[in-house]
Write a structure and sequence with these properties.
Layout lengths: L2 E6 L2 E6 L2 E7 L1 H15 L5 E2 H6 L7 H4 L6 H4 E4 L2 E4 L14
Antiparallel strand pairs: 1-2, 2-3, 4-6, 5-6
Length: 99
């Protein structure tokens, strides 16, 4: 299943063929969604709560962050302090290095 994320400043939207789109508003919420999506694109399992804290984000779980509705549960999985995208895994990509 393919998931798409688009961000426009403090607004963003997740879309997938098998579920309703999810609109997100708020700078930190969109940043968290972007981090989770980028991790998935790179083939990583997700983003840890400690990584979010390193970025100055104080949310400890999705239910605290996206508490205005339960639609987050259709797109985000939370287990053992790891925030991940509910989508088929992608192959890991090598980091791009500058020479």
């Amino acid at each position: 299943m393919e998931v798409r994320w688009e961000r426009y400043g403090n607004q963003g939207r997740f879309e997938a063929n098998d579920r309703e789109p999810w609109d997100i508003s708020g700078g930190q919420r969109c940043e968290i969604a972007s981090m989770i999506y980028k991790a998935w694109l790179m083939g990583n399992r997700g983003v840890s709560t400690s990584q979010l804290r390193e970025e100055g984000i104080g949310y400890t779980r999705p239910s605290n962050c996206f508490n205005d509705n339960d639609q987050w549960q259709e797109y985000i999985q939370y287990e053992n302090r790891l925030w991940s995208l509910k989508a088929d895994p992608r192959p890991r990509r090598k980091a791009i290095t500058k020479e």
